[in-house]
Amino acid sequence: MFGPMISPCIDICMIDPRTSLCLGCGRTLDEVAAWGTMAGTERARIMQALPARMQAAGLPDLAAPGKAVG
User: Fold this and answer.
1) CA-to-CA distance for 45 and 65, rounded, in angstroms?
2) How would you classify residue 59: left for phi > 0, otherwise alpha for psi between -120 and 50, otherwise beta?
3) Counting beta carbons within 10 angstroms of the beta carbon of residue 9, is it exposed (0 to 12), middle (13 to 18) or buried (19 or more)?
């Protein structure tokens, strides 16, 4: 009936002290905490914004293909 919830999490859960964004996925702590109760449209909007958010913050996109993780 319900499929798995889509998430940008790549299991690198550390908050960058400079930007207050997760180094793994780019979400804020508030977004991470609310993820399970957000509407699918809100999650999709955030996920679409994450690559540009990470780039604007100067954080590496660790989830990009070919990037070393860990």
Assistant:
1) 21
2) beta
3) middle
Q: What is the pLDDT of residue 69?
A: 43
pLDDT at res. 68: 44
Give the Cα-Cα-Cα angle 27, 29, 33 (nearest 5 degrees).
Answer: 100
The full set of domain ranges for the chain reads 11-60
Which portions of the chain are predicted below pLDDT 50? 1, 67-70
pTM: 0.81
3-class DSSP state of 21: strand
